[in-house]
Amino acid sequence: MVSVAKQKLYLLDYGAGNVRSLLNAVERLGYTIEYIATADDFDKADKIIFPGVGAFGYAMKALQNKGFVEPLKAFIASGRPLMGICVGMQVLFEGSDESPSELGLGLFEGRVRLFDSSTKTVPHMGWNSAQIVHEDSRSEVSVPDLNEERRYYFVHSYGVPYTAAGKQSEFVYTATRYGNETIVSSIWQGNVFATQFHPEKSGAAGLAALRSFIECDLVRPAASKVIKAPADIRKEFTTRVIACLDVRANDNGDLVVTKGDQYDVRESADMGGDVRNLGKPVDLAKRYFDEGADEIAFLNITSFRNLPFKDTPMLEVLRQASRCIFVPLTIGGGVRDVVDPDGEQVWSAVQVAGEYFRSGADKVSIGSDAVYAAERYWQRVSDGCKPLDGTTAIEQIAERYGNQAVVISVDPRRVYVSSPDHAKGHHVIKTVFPGPSGEEYCWYQCTVKGGREGRDVDVRQLVTACEALGAGEVLLNCMDKDGTNSGYDIELIADTKAAVSIPVIASSGAGKPEHFSEVVNKTGVEAVLAAGIFHRREVPIEAVKDHLLQRGIAIRPVKQSNIV
To answer: Which residues bind substrate (predicted)?
Structure first.
C-alpha cells in the first residue's frame, strides 16, 4: 500500500454541482486532491473519491460522454480504493427508478427506488443515523469511521431499499430508517466504500469518515454476517435548526449581515437610519457552525446589478464560508436570468445556480421568480395547456441538479376578509386572530421584490405549483411575524405543511425556545429557522437544541456537531 503522505488522491467530478465543499473538507484534513480530467488520470490515482449530486441519469450520461465508465470499472477491478458519495454510490447499482432507461454500473445487486411520499416528506433531507448491520471478524483491518451515535446529512429522493436479503449481506455496511422505509446508507465490499449521506456536509462526524478512507486500508474481509433485520433499524431522523443571514451592502458599500423588522432593515431615524450591521457574513456563519447549526442560509437582499455576475460578492462569501463550514449552505437572491451590465454575457438561471454550487452552495433559494413561475403554471392550467413546459428556473435547475437543490422562499402577508366569498377565489383559513375590523377569515398573499409588491397568488397556489415544477423544499417566511419575536405563524405553517409533500422550513417570529418546540409539535415541520435572535445571542442555538431535546424532539446534539 502507498503511504498516506505519498498517495495520489483524485476526485471524479462529472459536473455534479458543489464539489468545492469536498475539496475543502479534504484540505481541512491536511491532504491535497486532484481532479480526474481525462481517462488517463485513472491510472495515476491511488484512491478516488466519487461525489454525486442530482439525477441518476444525468450522472451516468456524463460519465459515458467523458469516456469514464470503463476506466472507472478498471480502477475498481484493480483493487485500488474508491469512495462514492450520494449519487456516486447509487450509480454503482444496477439502475434507478429516477432514470428507468439508464443502466447503472451494475457492480452491486439492487435498484434505486423512489421514496414513498404518502407517509412522509420527500426528499429525505436532514440529519439521520447510519446503523451498522454487520458483524465482521476483523483483526488488524481498518474500518470506515462511522458511529451509530453520530448523525449524518442526507439529501435524496431515491434510495436502495435495505432488505437484508440476496447479496446484501456481502456489501451493505449501514442502514438508515426514514419514516416507514429502511434504506442502505453505506456499502463496503473489498476496496469499495460508499455512502448515501454527504460526509463533507456532516460536520465532524463526516470528516472522520473521510479521514478513515484517506488514511486507512479499507479492504474488507469476505466473511460477514447480517445481524439486523430492516425492522431492527431505529427511527432517528432529526429536526434541523437553521441559522439565516440576510446579507446586503450597507451605505458604505460593505457587505454586512442585517435583520429587518417586518422587512425594514434600517435603524430608526433617531439612530441614524443606517442599515443594521450585525456582523460580517463569513465570521457570523462560522460562529453558527461552531455553535451547532444544522444548516446555514445566506439570503442576498442586494441586487449588485452594476457588477458582472462573476464579480458578485456573494460568490466570494460562499467560497470563504465553504472553507471552514461543513454543513449545508443555501444561497438565495438573484437566482434568475442575468445580463451583465455591459451586455456582453447573458447568464441563464441554471448557469447562475451552477456558479453558486461551484462556489460552495448546496441549495439555491428562489423567491420572486418562484411566484412568477407559479403564475405561469396556473395560467397554463387555465388555458388547458400542459402546465410543465421546462422553461422555468425551478424546472431547469431541478433537472440538472435534482429537486433537493431547489428551495422556494415564500414571503406572504395576511389579507383579512369578512367571509371566504370575499377572497376572490383564494384559499382561505378561519383564523383565531381576528383582523382589525373583527374579520374571522384570511388568505395569505404572496409578494415579490422583497415584500414590496403583492401578487394575485396565495401561498397554497404557490407551493403546490412549485412542488409540481420540481422544487424540493419550502422556506416559509411571514411578513406579519418578521422581527416580532412573538412566535411563528402556526396557522400559515400548518396549512402549508398540509398542502405539500416536500419539507417545510418554519421561519419568521421566533423569540424564545418554546416557539421552536411549539411549531414542530403543532405543524410537523422538518426544520426551524431564525436569524436576529441568533445574531444578537438573545437565544443561543444550543439553548434551542437543549429545549427541543427536553421536549422529546430529536435533534443533532451540539456536542456531536461541528467543531473540527
So the answer is: 334, 477
